[in-house]
Amino acid sequence: MADKKISQLTAVSATDITGAEEVPIVQGSTTKKTTLTNVQHYIVNHLEPTTLTVSAGNTYDLGASTYDEAELIVLTWSGANGTAVLTLPDVTLSKNLNRTKRIITDSTFTTSTHARLTPYSTQNLDGANTYYDLNKEYEGIKVWTNGTEWFIIQKKAT
Residue 39 — φ and ψ, nearest 5°? Predict the structure, then answer.
């Protein structure tokens, strides 16, 4: 690596990474090595929330670039009562295999405000092409995809 600048290195795609690759770590004044698996183990325990403000009559694509990498989405309601639609990412995209999404509502939600978590196109959520309705404050859901459909693996309601 010493013969090239970082900007000159060949890029690697996420599908080529196995986790066994060695990466340098500077600890104090000493450069050491570890693997991507070790780094991932450290990072995976920390969730960075993405806030999404929703309102009645609007649809929000959770596969769009703004929300695609978000694992935890905190919903805030704005405006009049009604229904907003949240569309899950397309499960057939290879980057979504074994992916999870967590969606929670904050204190702005009531029984008159609805965020409908909906599968993409004709895909399924828990075996059906239907939605899951979030309409309480501090409600949450965690979904996972096997690359064929989305599964509800955890629900929380107040």
Answer: -65, -45
Rounded to 5 degrees, what are φ and ψ at 145? -120, 140
Per-residue pLDDT tens for 61-89? 999 988 988 999 999 999 999 999 999 99
Name, in order, each residue with C-beta under 8 angstroms of 158's C-beta and a sequence gap of 6 or more.
136, 137, 138, 139
Supply 124's token pair.
Answer: 């399924």
User: What is the spatial distance between Cα 136 and Cα 150, in angstroms, rounded to a whole number?
Assistant: 22
User: What average pLDDT does the structure give for the chain?
Assistant: 90
Tokens representing 96 are: 């979504």
- The answer to whether the CB of 25 falls within 8 A of the CB of 32 is yes
pTM of the model: 0.72
CB 53 within 8 A of CB 78: yes
Tell me the C-alpha distance between 141 and 156, whole Å: 6
